[in-house]
Write a structure and sequence with these properties.
Blueprint: H1 3-18, H2 22-34, H3 36-67, H4 69-91
């Protein structure tokens, strides 16, 4: 894994950690209801689950990007052409 790939992975983890979801709500409810000590295994499970899921997602996207690299490049340049066309139509 290159440094840029590792930084992208860390960025994806940071975004996922910054957005609270139902797991965080359940963890807060358990902590408030049963105390901090009994909610630590749940917190560890949430962290391990997020790491596993995001690692699989990033690796899957990397595989798709590598397998269909030319298709993504074509879609990117088609998007550039479309945005230029929209800018021209907006300007005129």
């Amino acid at each position: 894994m290159t440094l840029s790939g590792f930084l992208a992975y860390c960025g994806a983890l940071a975004v996922a950690a910054a957005i609270p979801g139902p797991g965080i709500v359940a963890l807060v409810a358990r902590t408030l209801g049963a105390g901090l000590k009994s909610s630590l295994p749940m917190a560890l499970g949430l962290v391990l689950g997020d790491l596993t899921y995001l690692t699989a997602a990033v690796l899957g996207l990397a595989f798709v990007a590598k397998a269909f690299g030319m298709a993504f490049l074509l879609v990117k340049w088609m998007g550039v052409a479309y945005l230029l066309w929209l800018a021209y139509k907006f300007w005129t």
